[in-house]
Amino acid sequence: MTPTLQIAFDAADPHALARFWAAALGYEVEDHTAVVEGLLAAGHLGEADVLVDGDRRGFRDVATARGPGPRLFVQRVPEPKSAKNRVHLDLQVGPEEAPRRWSAWSRSAPGCCGRPPTAARSPPPCATPRATSSA
């Protein structure tokens, strides 16, 4: 099997962060309904472990998104961020596009994003995600 890359984030709200990055990168948040229902039926998952979002059922503590690049895996962690990120993602869209794109991204996950960008500053990363890489 050829290795593939998945980027993993720790977050207080994995679903908001997955929606943000999916909107920012043109990805789709994955639908885990079939897997979750199978695990519930088999008794391997309890209702407390499930998040209902419209007609979708997902894992309460995990959200994922897929697109043309690496898959995004976002997991809930109990502790708050305590140090500077060693890895971060920069979205480069250019100063003319930044305000319009930030507006669309912030609508995808209300309350998730920081200050709006200016021509001198790119959009802020949503909730300053912490990559789990030790790079």
Key terms for this structure?
24% helix, two-stranded antiparallel ribbon, single chain, 3 helices, alpha+beta, disordered C terminus, 135 residues, 5-stranded mixed sheet
Explained architecture:
The protein is of the alpha+beta class. It has helices at 14-25, 33-41, 98-108; strands spanning 6-11, 28-29, 50-53, 56-59, 62-66, 71-76, 130-131. The strands form two sheets. Strands 2-5-6-1-7 form a five-stranded mixed sheet, with helices on one face. Strands 3-4 form a two-stranded antiparallel sheet. A hairpin with a 4-residue loop joins strand 5 and strand 6 (71-76).
Short note summarizing the structure:
A five-stranded mixed beta sheet has the order 2-5-6-1-7, with helices on one face. Strands 3-4 form a two-stranded antiparallel sheet. The chain is an alpha+beta fold and 135 residues long. It is globular and about 50 Å long.
User: In terms of structural class, how would the helical and strand content be classed?
Assistant: alpha+beta
Cα Rg: 16 Å
Oligomer: single chain
Largest sheet: 5 strands, mixed
Question: How many strands in all?
Answer: 7
Element layout with pairings:
Blueprint: E1 6-11, H1 14-25, E2 28-29, H2 33-41, E3 50-53, E4 56-59, E5 62-66, E6 71-76, H3 98-108, E7 130-131
Parallel strand pairs: 1-6
Antiparallel strand pairs: 1-7, 2-5, 3-4, 5-6
